């Protein structure tokens, strides 16, 4: 036969046996990359769907090529046989001694071919050499490869394939909103194939969301789980997923062995790793969520892993798709999928090794928290707040270790106490802070100065929540212990907390006496946060007692103190309390300006208590201006915020009087029905929406203005009310929602929108759901059409 002869075929792509779900953005990106590059490598963790995506992309591109070939390398173990396998798959036979590569070059040089090289990771070098040589010899050749890591040759474009989108934890979901997630759609379709009639219902939608979350959106894991629904309910499957590697078996009998069970698939990846990479990968499972380079160097080095090697090892694991790289507000962090973390934890070895890693993990984060507390009052406040918020899961894991491991409770008590100001209070995480402090105080019972500080921290948060029944005994115990120890600094802090308690209950003479003493003692100790809290609370107290001159002086001092140190959290509160005082004095204009400034500052830190207090103050001010509906909506938002934090808007006695007076005024003007309607509207607003409205970024009432021109959007589905858009500003949407809608219209994914706006993907998903609800839509495509119609209307 003539060298290089090829049988009369145009390809060997298999027909789809099951439906293809989602991945529209990825398919579009592959088309774009293949138009710009001759080698595109799809990389990602095992089971993420690289092969299926490559096959769909190749099928869509079939008409652009003379032939499209799939070469499955999963069963090839000898690198020397890679070229032979490609030639055999294509039907290229060569009778000369030159070898299969020469024959392939000859055939491919005469036709326009798309070659899909599937499962290259274990033959990476051989695949790279072959692809490089063929691409140089055949100018019309395109190669689409799938691998855990890139091939690493010139001209290659790598595309990371992520798991399918699934709902993030901790957010309310409806049955309709679940339809937006490809991971849910895949589970639903595959479950219906093995259990006819299976659908997502009001009864099972929460369990369906949790199941897909636990499986990390990995298509293979979801498909294996769907098979189990023949024997188990969704709820039962979620409960049993703690041992997912044992449970998720029974895949397709036609799949290669490593794809028939989840354990075999991950073990395949593990066995391909060099020893040092195996060691680091298993140690990284000690982190419960994402982590940074500093943490890895502090926790995972030693025993064969040198600090100088960590970055290169992380890079290798990233390249093999065994770690994910994420950016959070410019900070690079790494994350392991839960499915992989469970596998690695089982590989950690003896319990002693696990405990050693957990202790090093705890020590690292205890050191971090101590540094945050020491540097809190100053210009680095926002950086520390953001950093601690990123480390939430690691902080919880470190404290949990302290409770579970004997003789470690004292370290846990120290961590929980140090977190009070920069974390629990700043984020209004009062319930969680009290939870950890209560548990640590019960475990660490030695009568030390640390225990006294912890008791006062616990008392402060309880009293701030209005829980005097729990807070006052904690305060008394903390103060008694400080007296027993003779610690004047802790006694000064006890006086401050006692003064706050007196202020909350409206005992202003006692409060003034306690806070005057506390202020002197805090100034003597040089404790800036204590000085600031004493100044602002004492100023508010003196204002209630009628000493306006000194009250104003103390307020101005508190604001100057924050300015001179670059402090922002305390400044937000100083402005907030000052605004309330000015409102009482009748200076509504300045009170409004300060309340809005305090609200904007507090929003930067996610301080929901500050937000609730400022929104309440602005509601009082709006009532005075006759803007009753706006005031009522803000009060509704305050009630909802208080409910989520375990607070009431009336926790301070004087505030309770203002609140009731405001409600009484609104009821007399509006009537019960109208007032109830606006309160309900306020309760339905997210905190961001309420803040935007209070700051003037949201159209009044969220309703169209009378002068808006209305144009028709895309054709309305049967049974759905006609949707209109404004040629001016789309009043149903907030400023942030308009930004997100514009990016949706540009074809951006939630992850891309989050990156562009420097917010979390979870926040973006929440905004998208609100946009869909407000506009009465069911898909992102309808949002895009709505934006296009609005733009067209604006131009006309």
From TrEMBL:
<dbReference type="InterPro" id="IPR002182">
    <property type="entry name" value="NB-ARC"/>
</dbReference>
<feature type="domain" description="HTH luxR-type">
    <location>
        <begin position="726"/>
        <end position="791"/>
    </location>
</feature>
<dbReference type="InterPro" id="IPR016032">
    <property type="entry name" value="Sig_transdc_resp-reg_C-effctor"/>
</dbReference>
<dbReference type="Pfam" id="PF00931">
    <property type="entry name" value="NB-ARC"/>
</dbReference>
<dbReference type="InterPro" id="IPR000792">
    <property type="entry name" value="Tscrpt_reg_LuxR_C"/>
</dbReference>
<dbReference type="Pfam" id="PF00196">
    <property type="entry name" value="GerE"/>
</dbReference>
<dbReference type="InterPro" id="IPR027417">
    <property type="entry name" value="P-loop_NTPase"/>
</dbReference>
<dbReference type="Pfam" id="PF25872">
    <property type="entry name" value="HTH_77"/>
</dbReference>
<dbReference type="InterPro" id="IPR058852">
    <property type="entry name" value="HTH_77"/>
</dbReference>
<dbReference type="InterPro" id="IPR019734">
    <property type="entry name" value="TPR_rpt"/>
</dbReference>
<dbReference type="InterPro" id="IPR036388">
    <property type="entry name" value="WH-like_DNA-bd_sf"/>
</dbReference>
<protein>
    <submittedName>
        <fullName>LuxR family transcriptional regulator</fullName>
    </submittedName>
</protein>
<feature type="compositionally biased region" description="Basic and acidic residues">
    <location>
        <begin position="695"/>
        <end position="708"/>
    </location>
</feature>
<keyword id="KW-0802">TPR repeat</keyword>
<feature type="repeat" description="TPR">
    <location>
        <begin position="532"/>
        <end position="565"/>
    </location>
</feature>
<dbReference type="InterPro" id="IPR011990">
    <property type="entry name" value="TPR-like_helical_dom_sf"/>
</dbReference>
<feature type="region of interest" description="Disordered">
    <location>
        <begin position="695"/>
        <end position="732"/>
    </location>
</feature>
């Amino acid at each position: 036969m003539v060298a290089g002869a090829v049988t009369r075929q145009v390809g060997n792509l298999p027909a789809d046996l099951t439906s293809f779900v989602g991945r529209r953005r990825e398919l579009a990106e592959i088309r774009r990359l293949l138009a710009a590059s001759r080698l595109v490598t799809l990389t990602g963790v095992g089971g993420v769907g690289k092969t299926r995506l490559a096959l769909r992309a190749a099928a869509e591109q079939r008409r652009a090529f003379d032939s499209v070939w799939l070469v499955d390398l999963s069963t090839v173990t000898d690198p020397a046989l890679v070229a032979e396998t490609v030639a055999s798959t294509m039907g290229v036979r060569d009778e000369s001694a030159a070898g299969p590569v020469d024959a392939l070059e000859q055939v491919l040089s005469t036709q326009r071919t798309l070659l899909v090289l599937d499962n290259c990771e274990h033959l990476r070098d051989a695949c790279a050499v072959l692809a490089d040589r063929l691409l140089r010899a055949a100018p019309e050749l395109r190669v689409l490869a799938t691998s855990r890591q890139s091939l690493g040759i010139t001209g290659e474009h790598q595309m990371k394939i992520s798991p399918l989108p699934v709902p993030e934890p901790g957010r309310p979901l409806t049955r309709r909103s679940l339809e937006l997630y490809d991971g849910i759609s895949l589970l639903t379709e595959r479950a219906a194939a093995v259990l006819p009639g299976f659908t997502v219902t009001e009864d099972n939608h929460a369990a369906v969301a949790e199941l897909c979350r636990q499986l990390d959106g990995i298509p293979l894991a979801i498909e294996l789980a769907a098979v189990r629904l023949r024997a188990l309910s969704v709820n039962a499957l979620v409960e049993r997923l703690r041992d997912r590697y044992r449970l998720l078996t029974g895949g397709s009998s036609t799949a290669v062995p490593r794809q028939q069970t989840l354990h075999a698939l991950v073990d395949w990846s593990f066995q391909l790793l060099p020893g040092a990479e195996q060691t680091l990968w298993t140690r990284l499972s000690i982190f419960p969520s994402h982590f940074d380079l500093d943490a890895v160097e502090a926790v995972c080095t030693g025993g064969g892993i040198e600090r100088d090697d960590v970055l290169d090892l992380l890079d290798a694991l990233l390249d093999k798709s065994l770690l994910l790289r994420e950016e959070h507000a410019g900070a690079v962090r790494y994350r392991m999928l839960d499915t992989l973390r469970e596998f690695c934890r089982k590989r950690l070895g003896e319990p002693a090794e696990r405990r050693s890693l957990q202790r090093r993990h705890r020590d690292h984060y205890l050191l971090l928290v101590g540094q945050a507390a020491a540097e809190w009052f100053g210009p680095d406040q926002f950086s520390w707040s953001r950093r601690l918020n990123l480390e939430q899961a690691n902080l919880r894991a470190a404290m949990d270790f302290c409770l579970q491991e004997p003789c470690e409770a004292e370290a846990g008590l120290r961590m929980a106490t140090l977190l009070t100001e920069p974390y629990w209070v700043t984020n209004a995480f009062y319930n969680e802070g009290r939870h950890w402090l209560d548990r640590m105080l019960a475990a660490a019972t030695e009568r030390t100065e640390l225990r006294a500080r912890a008791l006062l921290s616990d008392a402060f948060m309880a009293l701030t929540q209005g829980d005097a029944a729990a807070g006052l005994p904690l305060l008394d115990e903390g103060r008694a212990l400080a007296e027993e120890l003779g610690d004047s600094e802790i006694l000064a802090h006890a006086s401050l907390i006692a003064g706050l308690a007196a202020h909350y209950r409206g005992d202003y003479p006692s409060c003034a006496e306690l806070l005057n003493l506390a202020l002197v003692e805090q100034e003597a100790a040089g404790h800036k946060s204590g000085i600031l809290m004493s100044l602002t609370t004492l100023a508010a107290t003196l204002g209630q007692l009628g000493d306006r001159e000194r009250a104003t002086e103390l307020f101005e001092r508190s604001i100057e103190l924050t300015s001179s140190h670059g402090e922002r959290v305390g400044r937000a509160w100083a402005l907030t309390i000052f605004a309330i005082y000015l409102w009482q004095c009748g200076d509504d204009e300045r009170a409004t300006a300060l309340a809005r400034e305090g609200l904007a500052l507090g929003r930067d830190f996610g301080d929901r208590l500050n937000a609730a207090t400022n929104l309440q103050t602005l509601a009082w001010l709006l009532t005075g201006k006759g803007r009753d509906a706006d005031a009522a909506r803000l009060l509704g938002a305050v009630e909802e915020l208080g409910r989520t934090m375990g607070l009431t808007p009336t926790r301070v006695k004087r505030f309770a009087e203002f609140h009731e007076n405001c409600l009484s005024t609104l009821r007399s003007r509006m009537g019960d029905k109208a007032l109830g309607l606006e309160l309900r509207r306020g309760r339905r607003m997210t905190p961001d929406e309420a803040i935007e409205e209070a700051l003037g970024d949201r159209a009044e009432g969220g309703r169209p203005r009378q002068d808006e021109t209305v144009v028709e959007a895309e054709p309305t589905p049967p049974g759905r009310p006609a949707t209109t858009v404004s040629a001016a500003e789309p009043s149903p949407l907030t400023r942030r929602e308009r930004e997100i809608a514009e990016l949706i219209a540009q074809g951006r994914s939630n992850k891309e929108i989050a990156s562009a706006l420097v917010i979390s993907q979870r926040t973006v998903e929440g905004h998208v759901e609100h946009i869909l609800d407000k506009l009465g839509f069911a898909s992102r495509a309808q949002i895009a059409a709505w934006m296009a119609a609005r733009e067209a209307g604006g131009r006309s």
